[in-house]
Amino acid sequence: MKTEPPHTWRVLVVDDDPLLLANVTEGLDILGNFEVIAASDGATGLERFFEARPDCVVVDVRMPGVNGYQFVRALRGDPATVHTPVIILSALVQDREQLAGLLSGADAYLIKPVKLMDLVQAVEQAVKLTSDERLRALRDLSDL
Amino acid sequence: MGIQRDLGFLRRLAQRIFTPSRLRILLVDPDRVDARRLASALDREHITTIVSSAAEAFATLQTRIPSLVAAELSLPDASGLTLLTALRRHPGAQQIPFLILSQRTSLQDKIAAFQAGADDFLVKPVDPEVFAGHVRRLIYFRQLHPSSGS
Fold first, then answer.
1. What's the predicted TM-score (pTM) here?
2. Interface touch B17/A99, C-beta < 8 Å
3. What total number of domains does chain A contain?
4. What CATH number does the domain containing B111 carry?
5. Residue from A72, A78, A99 to probe the interface with B (highest B Cβ count within 10 Å)
6. Would you say residue B3 lies in a domain?
7. Cα-flanking dihedrals φ and ψ of residue B24, to 5°?
């Protein structure tokens, strides 16, 4: 009996910190068996996104040019990309920042420094979300 | 560090922070029929003014600064980005959420809009309820970030 090889998710990581980008890229590759694509700013991240069509995006907030909030809204505002799994990974620790990130449309908000296994789990959860679940979570926060 | 708060906590935080109120929204779109369709969902929550051109939008902005501007990228007399750039120079209007609407799906259009300071970019056709949701979340976002960029 043949066993299917495990599915390899393609993950785009967008962060302007080169050290973090290298660590997260390597960690996701080793721990999560993900195919990782890296981009060092929001505009390049959007270009990489449309070139590679990743299964999930991990994006920083504070970046020059196009920031992480704008990046998420760029995907959520287009029917072709609205259901892309997106995780914000940010050094901004306040609860209000988490709320801002989720209101922008992210599926999850993780705080740096993050354990790589937590990030792997967040990616695995995000790619399993259905579009209905994604929409419901967003409405829970904004339909008050 | 690491993991986010649970959604129940964040929802209670949102209920504590956000104060839904009837706000003035300026919708700039030469397609009056589509603009009215989009405004139909907003009208339950806000007061929407519809104008068809950048010139009309500038005239409206002289008399009253709205709480949010949603503008078509292609206006008959200017680009929606021209309007955005002018608004960002206007004292007291730099932080107003600005949403671009467009049928154009080119990545370069989106990147140019966000780099010019747009907060959101919706590809048409847009469902009115989806539009209202984006407007609501941008207004709440601005309550969380009253003095920062997008």
1. 0.94
2. yes
3. 1
4. 3.40.50.2300
5. A99
6. no
7. -95, 125
